[in-house]
Design goal:
The protein has 209 residues and is α+β, with helices and mostly antiparallel strands. 17% of the residues lie in helices and 43% in strands. It has one domain. The chain contains 4 helices and 13 strands. Strands 4, 5, 6, 7, 9, 12 and 13 form a 7-stranded antiparallel β-sheet that branches. Strands 1-2-3-8 form a 4-stranded antiparallel β-sheet, with helices on one face. It has a two-stranded antiparallel sheet with strand order 10-11. The relative contact order is 0.22.
Length: 209
Amino acid sequence: MQRSLKTVRWPAVAFFLVAAVSIGHTAEPLDFGVLDHELQLAAWLDLAPLVSTSRVEKMRDGVDLVIDFRLTLKRPRRLWGAETITERRGMVAIGYRIVTEDFVVQTGRDLQRTDRFATLAGLHRFLTDSIVVDLIDCGELDSLSRYLLSLDLVCISLTGYNLAPARDSFEADESALRYLFRQFLTLTGFGQESFAAKTEPFSAAEVCR
């Protein structure tokens, strides 16, 4: 699995080819881009910078961190706008358990996967290397077209909010948990920091091998 460098540095100059965008009013860089993952065009996200010292302190006090994101693959049109090819949503919940003295990370569509880390360094390594989201089969991409990937992300610290997985679905790719979470954010705007950026245009040949 080899990462593509087809990402941008925003708002800095683009020739660095690495995504590093501030979230809200913080100075936390966040890298993301595209890669070939077992014949799939996939997105990778480095979420480690979001686990800052202040957020770790909150987690140790029982305040879980939730990262909710949307990845949209688009094909720019010649005259205006862009055609949406596919969209994927994801959520990552991170907390600290006082009894076991470890960090717990829940990932997946309904947070069904759970990983535990005894150290903060182990947590950071996981968030740096392991968040990969398949977008579309490489064979479905037009070799003559160029594409771009956009990322919209919300980061929030929660207390007393039920993050248990739910079975019901309100959209084809959205669980009841996710739906309620989004409604909560929309109505309250509670403690949220948002992030939005996109890659440079790229071709299938530059990523898929």
